Amino acid sequence: MNEMNQGDQPPQRESIAIRQYRAPGIVVTWEPARCRHAAECIRGLPQVFNRDVRPWIDTSRASVDELVEVIDRCPSYALGYHAADGRMRTPPGEGDTSAT
């Protein structure tokens, strides 16, 4: 069933997609292509960010404020959020309309 020719690269579906994890009051986003595995999320909220289970983000295990605090530490901006109270985090230059 493998239709790839030798030398072809497998599709990079995971690196393209932005995943969303919803909870009351917040949508957490994860962009695998940006992730540099600094593990700030895992150290900050191991009950939420667990690479040994799928899905690896369980937003129900922390408050909105706890999620925001830890996601704001992500140096690569692979993690972001859109909170119901208007707070948001997106990579620099994306979604920031405050300068207009």
Strand neighbour order, sheet with most strands: 1-2-3-4
The unreliable regions are 1-15
What are the secondary-structure elements, in order, as H or E?
HEEHHEE
Level of helix content? 10-25%
Rg (CA only) = 16 Å
Per-chain topology:
Elements: H1 13-16, E1 19-23, E2 26-30, H2 40-44, H3 64-71, E3 79-83, E4 88-89
Antiparallel strand pairs: 1-2, 2-3, 3-4
Tags for this model:
100 residues, alpha+beta, 4 strands, four-stranded antiparallel sheet, disordered N terminus
Characterise this structure.
Helix content is 17%, strand content 17%. The N and C termini lie far apart (52 Å). The chain is built from three helices and four strands. The protein is an alpha+beta fold and 100 residues long. A four-stranded antiparallel beta sheet has the order 1-2-3-4, covered by helices on one side. The longest helix is centred in the C-terminal third of the chain and has 8 residues, at 64-71.
Short overview:
The chain is an alpha+beta fold and about 100 residues long. Helices cover about 15% and strands about 15% of the residues.
